[in-house]
């Protein structure tokens, strides 16, 4: 009998749940983010909170963490009503949070970030560094206490947040999409942590759009839809399909989406020769990378964050200096990002909040960022606001972005909806080359499905997609060929049907490609 | 020759002292994310408070006078703290108002002291032909202490984090509002101390417009030194030296004095231009000048 089975009977025997929310309602202008939500978590239990983008998951846990005050409803800890007026109070009550978007001080070192809010007066950063190394070694969550947060990739930042939550030692730990930018190995490390905490009698709330993870780690699932709880089931006996249906209200297709791909006769669209670049830390980020992307092809790039994938995409998008030659459609590709966009290069960046959108600008303005100065969004020197709004309405509709209106600043949107907005903007023209970094990061399954279809659609029309993702299932289901980046070198590409999750995982970890199946055909360009 | 160098150093240190003190104060509140343009006003009330206490009787306690100056600076800064942190008013507007209130009040209330000498000043320490004010020594030590405190202590780290990313600090249970209020009060106290130096050490009698634009230079200096306390020493010395040059020129040149009285403001521009050239603006605390509202996305 597992611990989770016990927790159910314990509550039946009269022990109050570790955490109970009663009738929580939170309204924002134009939306009811939470509509009398009831929720319980027992000691030694992992509750998964599921829901589409904008369903109100982050809002609910922000209330639990004292970041928002509910309009109605009550919170009980161990059967006693508590008022959580601030994060400080939440921490005192033993509630910890790994936020959806990293909340870290960019200019400070990792250790300084982790030391903030801890104990000890002198040299707080130095004190914490040892504990951090120990925790990260123990759980396989690699973080370097001395590096500056500004230099970290989103995945690395996420690891810092997780380590910080572990340092805090909370009784109730909330994890808001902690795995969206983690590699499978890192996610496994996190799940080990979660199981240990659970065995330790703590309560965890886990938010994720990846249903496999939910099935693997959660005991029970509560589903939100448009702010309301629409169901709850134990994960025992549930399947990916049944959870998906509960979430979106219809069945979702999980099968491999990519069938044929372009034949060998398809011409080269993008050709990259001997690309080298410096990283922000002064180390080489790209070491002589060469590959070809064919018309109509999806080329997947796997790799652990920080191995050069970001730099590769930034170089191609015109945001990073490099040496080497790049041609698109036979024409040399050079110049700044705006020029490259006009030449047909779309870029879905990895940091959606800071480089993907301007948070204080409205939905309509963010959608027009690429081409507000040109027809049809401008006439002569004047912008055509009517046309801008019309197009914004169409895009919001087409990508089902949940927003109160097209004049809402994007900072008010939920994480997944911001991502949809970027996709809508970048894919609006008819790009020849789509650089997609974690394109479905934070998207719910319905939206993920939709984005996959859009990308495949574009390849059917002859566009090439360079897909960088740490989600190997996504890579394998979409790509025609997959390459792996390790230490700034590119291994592969290998035909997608000759590699597996496992072999890719090994390559990402630095195993020698010749020892793996598929290496012979794919060849190694490093 | 040596004497010229020593004199230049002594004078640069003297003018540099209020610059350094006020600049350290401004660094304190700006590292917490609050701009205070009212330093000139804070210095003015500090000077007035110090003078009022010291001029009261022949055996007035000078420590008390310095304390009064710091208290006066902090009290006026409290207005700024309430306006910008609690009421979330625009920091620039509130700071400008503070400058006007402070200089105005000091001018008005100081009328009755005009021309009045002090019974006893804070005596300089001398080493041969080299003289240095205890205030200067205190300011130098303070710069070192502040650098250490910001870099190596938990409360220093908290203050910096609040200035960089208040939301991140908040999520970890830091009281952002309180931290900022305390930082603004500390900044006010240091500006008040700069005023006390002018009243008790630099000049020997009360004069209107005692601060003479030094507060404005101090505000600009913060940018020039990239918000770093130790660099503030070099910055204050450098601008103290420019001031000294100005006095020298003023004494024996045909240039009208009006030109020289515009000097502080020219210096502010010079400071900002130099800071711009050195790319210092990129060092600004990330949340500088912005009110923090919890839960605002
Ligand atoms: N501070 C705010 N002001 C206005 N609207 C808000 C605010 N915070 C959230 N919302 C709205 O409330 C709704 C729920 O948002 P929330 O972030 O909780 O969604 P979510 O379930 O976490 O979605 P995702 O999976 O995309 O992260 C969204 O429509 C969002 O736009
Ligand atoms: Mg969310």
From TrEMBL, chain B:
<feature type="transmembrane region" description="Helical">
    <location>
        <begin position="259"/>
        <end position="277"/>
    </location>
</feature>
<dbReference type="GO" id="GO:0005886">
    <property type="term" value="C:plasma membrane"/>
</dbReference>
<feature type="transmembrane region" description="Helical">
    <location>
        <begin position="92"/>
        <end position="110"/>
    </location>
</feature>
<feature type="transmembrane region" description="Helical">
    <location>
        <begin position="62"/>
        <end position="85"/>
    </location>
</feature>
<dbReference type="Pfam" id="PF02653">
    <property type="entry name" value="BPD_transp_2"/>
</dbReference>
<keyword id="KW-1133">Transmembrane helix</keyword>
<feature type="transmembrane region" description="Helical">
    <location>
        <begin position="34"/>
        <end position="56"/>
    </location>
</feature>
<protein>
    <submittedName>
        <fullName>ABC transporter permease</fullName>
    </submittedName>
</protein>
<feature type="transmembrane region" description="Helical">
    <location>
        <begin position="230"/>
        <end position="247"/>
    </location>
</feature>
<keyword id="KW-1003">Cell membrane</keyword>
<feature type="transmembrane region" description="Helical">
    <location>
        <begin position="206"/>
        <end position="225"/>
    </location>
</feature>
<dbReference type="InterPro" id="IPR001851">
    <property type="entry name" value="ABC_transp_permease"/>
</dbReference>
<feature type="transmembrane region" description="Helical">
    <location>
        <begin position="181"/>
        <end position="200"/>
    </location>
</feature>
<feature type="transmembrane region" description="Helical">
    <location>
        <begin position="130"/>
        <end position="150"/>
    </location>
</feature>
<feature type="transmembrane region" description="Helical">
    <location>
        <begin position="6"/>
        <end position="27"/>
    </location>
</feature>
<keyword id="KW-0472">Membrane</keyword>
<keyword id="KW-0812">Transmembrane</keyword>
<dbReference type="GO" id="GO:0022857">
    <property type="term" value="F:transmembrane transporter activity"/>
</dbReference>
């Amino acid at each position: 009998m597992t611990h989770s089975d016990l927790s159910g009977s314990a509550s039946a025997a009269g022990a109050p749940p570790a955490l109970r929310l009663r009738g929580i309602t939170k309204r924002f202008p134009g939306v009811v983010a939470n509509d009398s939500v009831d929720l319980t978590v027992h000691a030694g239990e992992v509750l998964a909170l599921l829901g589409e983008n904008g369903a109100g998951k982050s809002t609910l846990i922000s209330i639990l963490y004292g970041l928002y005050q509910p309009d109605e409803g009550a919170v009980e800890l161990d059967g006693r009503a508590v008022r959580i007026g601030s994060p400080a109070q939440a921490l005192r009550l033993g509630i910890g949070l790994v936020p959806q978007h990293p909340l870290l001080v960019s200019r400070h070192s990792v250790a300084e970030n982790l030391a903030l809010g801890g104990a000890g007066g002198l040299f707080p950063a130095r004190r914490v560094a040892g504990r951090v190394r120990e925790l990260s070694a123990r759980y396989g969550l690699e973080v370097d206490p001395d590096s500056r947060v500004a230099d970290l990739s989103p995945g690395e930042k996420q690891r810092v947040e997780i380590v910080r939550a572990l340092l805090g030692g909370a009784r109730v730990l909330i994890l808001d999409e902690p795995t969206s930018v983690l590699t499978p190995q890192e996610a496994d490390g996190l799940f080990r942590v979660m199981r240990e905490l659970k065995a330790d009698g703590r309560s965890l709330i886990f938010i994720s759009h990846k249903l496999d993870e939910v099935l693997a780690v959660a005991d029970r699932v509560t589903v939100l839809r448009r702010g309301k709880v629409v169901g709850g089931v134990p994960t025992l006996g549930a399947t990916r399909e049944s959870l998906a249906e509960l979430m979106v209200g219809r069945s979702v297709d999980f099968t491999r989406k990519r069938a044929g791909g372009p034949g060998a006769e398809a011409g080269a669209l993008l050709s990259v020769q001997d690309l080298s670049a410096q990283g922000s830390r002064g180390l080489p980020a790209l070491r002589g990378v060469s590959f070809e992307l064919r018309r109509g092809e999806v080329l997947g790039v796997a790799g652990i964050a920080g191995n050069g994938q970001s730099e590769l995409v930034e170089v191609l998008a015109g945001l990073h200096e490099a040496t080497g030659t790049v041609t698109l459609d036979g024409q040399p590709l050079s110049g700044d990002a705006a020029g490259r966009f006009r030449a047909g290069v779309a870029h879905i960046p990895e940091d959606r909040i800071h480089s993907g959108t301007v948070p204080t600008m409205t939905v309509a303005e963010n959608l027009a960022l690429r081409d507000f100065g040109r027809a049809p969004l401008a006439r002569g020197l004047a912008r055509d606001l009517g046309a801008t709004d019309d197009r914004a309405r169409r895009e919001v509709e087409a990508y089902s972005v949940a927003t109160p209106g097209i004049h809402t600043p994007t900072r008010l949107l939920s994480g997944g909806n911001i991502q949809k907005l970027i996709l809508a903007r970048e894919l609006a023209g008819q790009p020849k080359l789509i650089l997609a970094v974690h394109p479905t990061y934070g998207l719910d399954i319905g939206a993920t499905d939709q984005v996959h279809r859009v990308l495949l659609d574009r390849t059917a029309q002859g566009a090439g997609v360079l897909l960088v993702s740490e989600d190997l299932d996504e890579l394998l289901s979409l790509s025609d060929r997959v390459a792996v980046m390790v230490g700034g070198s590119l291994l592969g590409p290998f035909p997608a049907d000759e590699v597996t999750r496992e072999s890719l995982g090994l390559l990402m970890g630095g195993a020698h490609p010749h020892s793996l199946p598929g290496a012979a055909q794919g060849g190694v360009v490093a | 020759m040596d004497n010229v160098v020593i004199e230049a150093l002594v004078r640069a240190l003297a003018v540099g002292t209020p610059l350094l003190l006020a600049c350290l104060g401004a660094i304190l509140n700006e590292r917490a994310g609050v701009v205070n343009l009212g330093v000139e006003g804070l210095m003015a009330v500090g000077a007035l408070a110090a003078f009022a206490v010291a001029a009261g009787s022949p055996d007035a306690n000078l420590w008390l006078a310095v304390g009064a100056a710091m208290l006066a600076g902090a009290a006026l800064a409290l207005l700024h703290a309430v306006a910008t942190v609690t009421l979330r008013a625009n920091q620039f507007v509130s700071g400008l108002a503070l400058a006007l209130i402070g200089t105005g009040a000091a001018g008005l209330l100081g009328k009755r002291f005009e021309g009045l000498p002090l019974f006893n000043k804070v005596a300089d320490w001398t080493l041969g032909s080299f003289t240095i004010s205890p205030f200067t020594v205190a300011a130098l030590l303070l710069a070192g202490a502040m650098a250490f405190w910001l870099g190596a202590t938990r409360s220093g780290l908290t203050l910096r984090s609040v200035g960089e990313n208040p939301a991140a600090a908040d999520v970890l249970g830091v009281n952002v509002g309180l931290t900022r209020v305390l930082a603004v009060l500390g900044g006010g106290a240091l500006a008040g101390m700069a005023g006390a130096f002018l009243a008790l050490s630099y000049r020997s009698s009360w004069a209107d417009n005692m601060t003479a634009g030094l507060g404005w230079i101090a505000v600009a200096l913060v940018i020039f030194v990239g918000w770093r306390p130790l660099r503030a020493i070099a910055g204050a010395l450098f601008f103290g030296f420019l001031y000294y040059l100005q006095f020298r020129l003023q004494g024996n040149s045909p240039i009208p004095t009006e030109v020289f009285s515009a000097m502080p403001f020219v210096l502010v521009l010079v400071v900002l231009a130099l800071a711009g050239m050195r790319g210092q603006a990129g060092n600004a605390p990330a949340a500088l000048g912005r009110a923090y509202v919890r839960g605002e996305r």
